[in-house]
Amino acid sequence: MTQTTFTRQLAHHITSSPRMTPEVSSWMRLLLLDYFAVTAGGADRDSAQAVRSAFTLSLERTQHFPAALHGAAGFAAVEDAALINGVTAHGLELDDTFEESSLHPGVVVFPAVLAIADRDGQSVDAVLTAAAIGYDVMCSVGVLLGARASYARGFHPTGIAGALGAAAAAAALLDLSEDQAAHALGLAANMAAGSLEFLSDGSWTKRLNAGHAAATGMRAAKLAAADFNAPATALEGRDGFLRQYGEGLPEGRELCLEFGRGALDTSIKFYPCCRYMHGNIDLLRDIHDENPGIGLGDVAEIRVGVIKAGASLVSEPAERKLTVGTPVDAQFNMPFGAAIALATGRATVDQFDDAPQVARDLREWMEKVTCYTSDALESAFPARWEAEVSVRLTNGNLIEKSAAAFRGAPQDRASWADIVAKAEGLIGAAAAGSLAASIELMEAQGPMTGSVHLVVEPV
């Protein structure tokens, strides 16, 4: 009798031939639009240019270079394209987030399935179905692992759970058997990697974690298709994934698998920074707008609640967060995010790109920020990410705000129009309109390759 391990449960989900529903199909197209917009918008990042220069590329699609680069001209080998596109997509910190497991599925799953589809010519429906399965597996494995546990051990959930998500998506698209899919997951668990050390100096390895996960998952599926095997207990075993990257399997924790659920519960980002900062930025922007002319002299203290699992990313150590030397430093910096939100009413790509200068200009605002933990936030986490802030004015007045969800979360769902507007800000109105129309008009049984009109040069 086959042992019911976690990899076996996941493999069964991968190979169960789920029926694409209108709800899941519509949402997958929205996520695809968001993916292409943030990838094209990030194609001119230094990290994106560097990763493209590291690989052999072709200006034309050929047998050896079948997979398109996203947001830049050229084609690459399949695994190379997945890595390049994953790095590029994650560069702006504007990509989608599955909050409960604190990871970014789109920048891992879409680079994998789109590269395979470029080579093999699968249909739109097959690609979106495989992508939805990848979201399911990546997100559910992340929940099983626990974001707080992986962060505590210095691991980036997108990098490690992402390898399994990409393996699942690739296995589904390649039509692997259940046994092969189980081995693909076990092999991906063995090869997964991704640390948080980028926080020490603002380097680019977080972006690499997304691309590496995409390429690693594809390689795992390729090996499994050739009947290369992996341990049956790759996740829950004594030396398995959950113990290596977390605290083992907590009592009573199980996989929750429902086709499309991972994608449907994925949030959209509207600020180019760590998702843990977004709820407070939402609230402080509201306070700015509701108090016209509010200035530094009006503010005595800014208090922001931070979810404990994200504190090591965005608020600790407090003294270190007052030093912003790179855009990455700012992307993981709650005092910086709070300062720009309350002082300017904005939180834009340009502000994060110019973060060292912006931080110097807003240093006194940042010094007024105090980050704290909250029983209310912790009682809701990880199922819900809530936010709370307060601003004490020099006249003695206290402004308090809270929210039951961040903007773009499933409880405050982003619309197609929201994503089109986001894309317009990244690649221009004409390009965004063309991109959105091509995705909206894709025929389910038509080939994915060539179906999406993506601008080559971001605006």
TrEMBL record:
Alphabetical list of Pfam families matching this protein: MmgE_PrpD_C, MmgE_PrpD_N
Domain MmgE/PrpD N-terminal per the UniProt entry, residue ranges: 9-248
GO MF entries: lyase activity
Domain named MmgE/PrpD C-terminal: residues: 271-442
InterPro entries cross-referenced by the UniProt entry: MmgE/PrpD_sf (IPR036148), MmgE/PrpD_sf_1 (IPR042183), MmgE/PrpD_sf_2 (IPR042188), MmgE_PrpD (IPR005656), MmgE_PrpD_C (IPR045337), MmgE_PrpD_N (IPR045336)
Family membership noted in the UniProt record: Belongs to the PrpD family.
The name this protein goes by in its record: 2-methylcitrate dehydratase PrpD
Organism of derivation: Arthrobacter subterraneus
